[in-house]
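<backbone_tokenisation>
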Amino acid sequence: AIFMGVAGFIGALEYMRITNTTEKLSTRVVSAILAMVPAVAAYLFLGQNAPLFSQHSVFIFAASVAVCLWGAFLFTCFRPREIPKASSVINATLGVAVYIGFTFLCLALLKRDFHNGNAWLFTLMAMTWGSDTGAYFVGRKFGRHKLAPVLSPKKSIEGAVGGFASAIVAAVIAK
């Protein structure tokens, strides 16, 4: 759980760096912390296997979401800046709470709450590695048709199909 929290925080910082290139490091760090608050609260307080589960767990989780929402708003809006720039920081903070926070929360919960959680995590990692590797090699060898040239000019439809097939092979091997 600690590893997932640290990895999620690093991912949140990276997301903030990509989406808010002109912001100071301190702004990105505060935004990343605020974004991870609901995921950490969910891990600690929600579910029967939660380390701090109590009758008030749902209220605590709701409060953590409020801290994220209002914290992002207050931290950004009470500093001298233009509205589009403030809006960009708020949107990125809320986006990273869902995109990064929720993803790493699901990984931590998979380990904590599911029978054979380690096996499921290993399978997921094997599929990710297999997909990336297969997409790279198939795309390099056979890639002719661009998948999304605006987003990633070197990605191809053939590579995507190779990645999908490689992920299935990796899952079968992991099983």
